[in-house]
Amino acid sequence: METYKGVPLGATPADVAAWPLDRPALAGMPTPLVTLSEAAVAHNVATMAAWCAAAGVDLAPHGKTTMSRVLWEQQLAAGAWGITVATPWQASVALGWGVPRVQLANALVQPAALRALAPDVGRLLVWSDSVRGVRIMHDALTAAGATEPLGVLVELGAPGGRTGARTRSAALDVARAVADSPVLRLAGVAGYEGALAHDAGPASLETVRGYLADLGALHDALGDLYPDDGEVVVTAGGSAYFDAVADVLATRHDPAGERGRPTRVLLRSGAYVVHDDGFYRGISPLSRGAGTPLRAALHGWATVVSRPEPDLVLLDAGKRDLAYDEGLPEAQGVRRFGESALEPLPGARVTAMNDQHTFLSVPADAAVDVGDVVRLGLSHPCTTFDKWRGIVTVDDDRSPDPRVTGLVETAFG
Q1: Residues 294, 284 contacting (CB under 8 angstroms)
Q2: Spatial CA neighbour of 330 closest among 279, 399, 392, 254
Q3: Residue that terminates a domain, selected from 233, 268, 303
Q4: In whole angstroms, what is the distance from residue 280 CA to residue 276 CA?
Q5: Label partner for 288 (CA 20 to 30 A): which of 200, 233, 278, 304?
Q6: Which ranges carry the D-serine dehydratase-like domain (predicted)?
């Protein structure tokens, strides 16, 4: 098991398989380490499912956050409509794992990928923002002899945003091209509001809401182009502004077709499942009063390997282990050498990271020494998960003596 860096040196597959029964102490695990709290994940999955039900929308969580079959299945069991992915390879993983509905929140314009995915297009939705992209899909699927049409969502963008047609006129051209192809099906509209703002200030929220109103108007304008049968999808919503998505678009959610064409409003929030102690803690709607707050489920653990100066501590985890792209980790406490309980570490602050070291500034009189272990709160879980092939799970991060319960494997290629 040495290929899993969170597993004790010398551990065998049988040792790891016994963790759910043996429940070893977290204090006995090596560092650098990242742990996932089962109690926090269960809270977050249930909280988001209940929020979506109350808001009158459905959820296809973005699976790229974790790329974990276990966590995806937990989200699906809680009522998620399907799983969203970002790349053709991720789509192939999801389809291979038996996910019933997969949304590729991206253009699919690689002929080889289209040919490979052709047998499963009945379970797949993709995005498109160009007539050329539609032609590529049409030609590749026609050549592959696809027996079912591929559902295509017309992507609307905005100036300064990411992908997406920049005008309603351009989006309508894409929709007409899709409707004209016998191997494609016009399945709805899609967009990503998170590229247009990066905080929850009034100006940002106004920008987001205006964009979402435009997305809804595009869906309304496509009425005559939609096929006569089957439901259509309106999808938006990362992990930062899903409350605005529900507020602006939920009135169109009508999967039973009681008010006309069956329409499903889908959120794609993904980071909620583990939340964080940084970016999402500050911007999530559930941190801004929209509902029950989420809990950070992911934590880093690093051993003090040096205290070369009174106010400087060096830890044995770095950029190869912990996310740093949306803020540096935060020091949350210290576990003394040979102990299991976490104690406060006031005044400690991460100031820099190298590949395998983290620089921790501490007060000169701080009680922290070589061999102690520091717990780190992390920002942006997506770029921590992809650094670990297996993440150790613990029963509850709030326990004074967390116990190891298993290993969640990831699939990032």
Answers
A1: yes
A2: 279
A3: 268
A4: 6
A5: 233
A6: 297-395
